[in-house]
Write a structure and sequence with these properties.
The chain has 319 residues and is α+β, with helices and mostly antiparallel strands. Helix content is 27%, strand content 34%. Bound molecules: adenosine-5'-diphosphate (ADP) and magnesium ion.
Length: 319
């Protein structure tokens, strides 16, 4: 049975169509990541799942039951917002325990639950502190702990790591992944960061302008992008797009263009090179299109002619 299902869900604000009749489902226990540019409708989807807003039409089904018009309370969903806010006048302990107390859980059970989750998120030594005595990263851990402690059926996270610096983001991402594997909750995680999406997801849904571009595993999304948007949105540097004489659009990833040692292959002239250290991006023009390839070679120079080959199996065709 599907855990969450959107059937023809449409949402507008006045004249603006925010979600244009979308259909998708999230499996029980899945880490489902929604990724897309700012303003594409990601937060709107989470708000619909949580019941904070209602669709204009269509149905939202949870475990086979239509919850479309039900209040948030009946859904057993916990939500970590992008602008997470801790209760400033409460200790870390009470911040985490708050939702449990309002569920009338007994004191001993609350204690155990808070201790367990605090250890998992490495904040067990901070339980007596107040939010203004915490760093940004510690606050974010507390916000995550608060959401995870409720042991909701469904956990929604709206760009919860975006305000953290790179190291911390990476660390929390890995911890979240482990946590999800251990607990098997349904996690719906929103981000605009493709790396975050690729590393965290069982499946990714790419959304653009209120429509679903593609749903698939990270591997499928990378190797078999179904639209030019997906090809360009996932992968760094962006997928090269080019047209043939008939006007059909093709795409090839910069990682899949090889520099040939012999003079077999197409001659192209290097226009610029970005040295990233672990890899280098070599820019050139191909068939009057700007192209880029990725190589570990460091012996190349701007103005040099190289010969490139592309394996047909790596070329995506878009209709
Ligand atoms: P994302 O989370 O992908 O950045 P959102 O789902 O927050 O995007 O918003 C999608 C679009 O809906 C945006 O254009 C936004 O301005 C608009 N929008 C969101 N909430 C409201 C609202 N309450 N009233 C009017 N427009 C809204
Ligand atoms: Mg958002």
């Amino acid at each position: 049975m599907k855990k969450i299902q959107f059937n023809d869900v449409f949402k507008s604000y006045e004249d603006n169509q925010i979600l244009k009749t979308i259909d998708f489902s999230v499996e029980r226990g899945e880490a489902f990541v929604i990724v897309g540019p700012s303003g594409s409708g990601k937060s709107t989807i989470l708000n619909l799942i949580a019941g904070l807003i209602k669709p204009d039409s269509g149905e939202i089904i949870m475990e086979g039951r239509a919850v479309t018009h039900e209040s948030p309370k009946t859904r057993n969903v916990s939500f970590v917002f992008q602008d997470f806010a801790l209760y400033p006048h409460m200790s870390v302990y009470n911040n985490i325990a708050f939702a449990l107390k309002s569920k009338r859980m007994n004191k001993t059970d609350i204690n155990t639950r808070v201790d367990t989750i605090a250890k998992k998120l490495h904040i067990e030594k901070l339980l007596k502190r107040y939010p203004n005595e915490l760093s940004g990263g510690q606050k974010q851990r507390v916000a995550l702990a608060r959401a995870l402690a409720t042991e909701a059926d469904i956990i929604l996270m709206d760009e919860p790591l975006s305000s953290l610096d790179t190291d911390l983001r990476l660390k929390l991402r890995e911890e979240l992944k482990v946590f999800h594997k251990e607990n098997n909750t349904t996690l719906i995680f929103v981000t605009h960061d493709q790396t975050e999406a690729m590393t965290l997801a069982d499946r990714i849904m790419i959304i653009n302008n209120g429509t679903i571009e593609q749903i698939g595993t990270p591997r499928e999304i990378y190797l078999e992008p179904m639209t030019p948007f997906v090809g360009k949105f996932i992968g760094t540097p962006k997928m090269n797009l080019f047209k043939n004489d008939v006007g059909t659009l093709f795409g090839i990833r910069p990682q899949h263009i090889k520099i040939s040692d012999s003079h077999l292959g197409e001659p192209v002239v290097i226009t610029s090179i970005d040295y990233l250290g672990q890899e280098n991006w070599v820019h050139f023009e191909y068939d009057a299109h700007p192209f880029v390839l990725v190589t570990t070679r460091v012996d190349l120079e701007v103005g040099q002619t190289i010969h490139i080959t592309m394996d047909e199996s790596n070329i995506a065709t878009f209709n």
